[in-house]
Amino acid sequence: MSTALIQLTYFFASALFILGLKDLGSPETARRGNLFAAAGMFLAIVGTLAHRDIISYEWIVTGMIIGSAIGAAMAIFMPMTAMPERIALSHAFGGLAAAFVGISEYYRHGAEMELLKTVPVGFEVIFGALTFTGSLMAFGKLSGYITQVPVTYKFQNQSNISLFAVTLALYVAWLFTPSYPVLFYIMLGLAFLIGVLMVLPIGGADMPVVICLLNSYAGLAASATGFVLSNNILIIAGSLDGASGLILSIMMSKAMNRSFTNVLFGAFGSVAETVPGAAASATGSVNEGTIDDAVTVLRNAQRVIVVPGYGMAVSQAQHALRELADLLDSDGVTVKYAIHPVAGRMPGHMNVLLAEANVAYDHIFDLEDINDEFSKTDAVIVIGANDVVNPAAKTNPSSPIYGMPVLNVEEARTVIVLKRSMSAGFAGIDNELFALPNTMMVFGDAKQTVTKMVQALKS
């Protein structure tokens, strides 16, 4: 394939990436956007495989087979509820690939590398390495292999910043003295360490922001790889990935009413556990109800809003929830879903789970579109959500979540909260909602509870 034809293939691939990214911004067009992006990646791979610099395809085919097998296993065996973990792993692989390209280029050319080559090589190695270890840390925290509680120690922020400064100093020194490999490999090792130390003090509440930020780092590393390999499609795709990840990180921080630096250095989001099944908290006694009590409320409701959270993902209750909503809808009840921007472990986590359960897109509303409707709602079902429905964000200036936009569920006539226990959310604080007189706590596994509610409604 000629160079002109390869560049034309890259042009169409880039256009498909941009169209795909645009369509992913809306639930109605997200499926089409995903197909556009996949088609763009296919064209990018075809164009790259046709490059004249490729001498043999043995190792390329081997890599494609291994990568396809890993991707297929992740798609088949990892449930939709584990989507944040899968994305963290994808970022880790992307970062490692970028770092390997940089290491390979330096191994091949060594001291002969010019400044125009060492700049992107060093950049991709640093960001690729810290993305790899940082994403593995995020995966460990999300999957429970590593504690979700922020791990902090004295002078942590100062030492991390100092470590990053030393890495940058080594990078600058290596740029002008590429004949000293010790500088390169120390820089590489410190970058791997920075990824671990960067995510270590970040708690579960901030995982949506962290995932977006790591996505941005992976994109920047990929873009640098494009400069190293003189590959235009990598430059374009990496830039799109880096920019979109950064914008999404800022949007997530804004949704939590917190600054970017506070997310990275604030050590916010500790997990506080209490005895399962407890029926009281520091905010006061709660009204514990039964499944029959909840069903009675729903039978007499005309408007119901469902607020899903990470607890729904853990119990995989989305299908049972949709069946419950269908039953209520058949009885003439208006059912809507309210999604908080940081509900779950990644942006759009709840939307993905509800889409898996075939919940209609026009029944799902963002916070700003539905918050005014809670005061006109008969019943709200809070299933596994915690901090995003805590009135303390609006009433308690001493609360760590004060100022964060939350869903106004307490304004509804009755609030039914489905939880395993009175344990706190990722912010590690009590929820004032649970002690309100119009709140009914129904304890138990969310999926089992909703299934029993469905059975009771049918009977």
Mean pLDDT: 85
Radius of gyration, whole Å: 25 Å
> Number of DSSP helices?
17
The low-confidence parts are 268-283
Number of strands: 8
Strand fraction equals 5-15%
Strand arrangement, major sheet: 5-4-3-6-7-8
- What's the SSE pattern? HHHHHHHHHHEEHEHHEHEHEHEEH
Distance between the termini: 67 Å
Share of residues in helices: 55-70%
Shape: globular
- Tally of individual domains: 2
**What does the largest sheet look like?**
6 strands, parallel
SS content category: alpha/beta
What does this structure look like?
The strands form 2 sheets. A 6-stranded parallel β-sheet has the order 5-4-3-6-7-8. A two-stranded antiparallel sheet has the order 1-2. The protein is globular. The protein contains 17 helices and 8 strands. It has helices at 3-23, 30-49, 58-77, 83-109, 115-143, 156-176, 181-199, 207-229, 232-255, 260-265, 291-299, 310-315, 318-330, 349-356, 367-370, 392-395, 446-458; strands spanning 280-281, 284-285, 303-308, 334-339, 364-366, 379-383, 414-419, 439-443. The protein folds into 2 domains: 78-265, no CATH class; 280-458, Rossmann fold.
